[in-house]
Each structure stands twice: as structure tokens, then as C-alpha cells.
Automatic annotation (TrEMBL):
It comes from Strombidinopsis acuminata. The lineage of its organism: Eukaryota, Sar, Alveolata, Ciliophora, Intramacronucleata. This is Poly [ADP-ribose] polymerase. It comes from the Eukaryota. The keyword Nuclease does not apply. Pfam families: PARP (PF00644).
Amino acid sequence: VNEHYLFHGTSPTGALGIIQSGFDMSKAGSSTGLMLGPGAYFAEASSKFDEYAKPDELSGMRAVLVCRVLCGNMFRALGKPDPAMLADRGFAAKYDGILGDREASV
């Protein structure tokens, strides 16, 4: 089983919504974009999830969720994947998610 504890940075309002209803894929990327296609984005390093933890307009507070993530069979992206490849049904049948290789993008 390819299971990990990973971080998800968001706003306090976003965190409450996720806690109450789970991850809503229709809202994925609504405030940050979708570099690797639609889905929930997680990070293993605080320097990455902090980029996505948006401050609350009134308090300036940010939120981070520690999530238990079942990753399955991952495709390792060495850069931004081709959108046509992501849309291909064969790709979706073979992989459960995309791992953005942070070492390759440094």
C-alpha cells in the first residue's frame, strides 16, 4: 500500500469545508490553479504547502491539514505534464495520481 501522511495548505475557511464535507474535486484549484491537472494537491514539505495556505482576510491566519493519503500507482512528472496526456483515458486507467518531482523542478 502506497500510503503517506502529507500536508494540504489552505485557508481557514477551506479547512473547515474540507473537514465538514471532504475534498470537493469541483473546487480543486479554484484559488491556486491546476499545474498537474484536476485533483487534490498534497506536499511532504512545509516550504511547499505554505505556498498554498492562503491567509484569512480578517485574521491573517493560515491553515494546514495533515492528511493520510492513499497514493496508489503514481506517475512521476519531471516537469509540467502535457494536458493531452493527462486527458487520455489510458493514462487515467494506468495511474492513480501524479507526483510532481520537486528535485527535478528546483
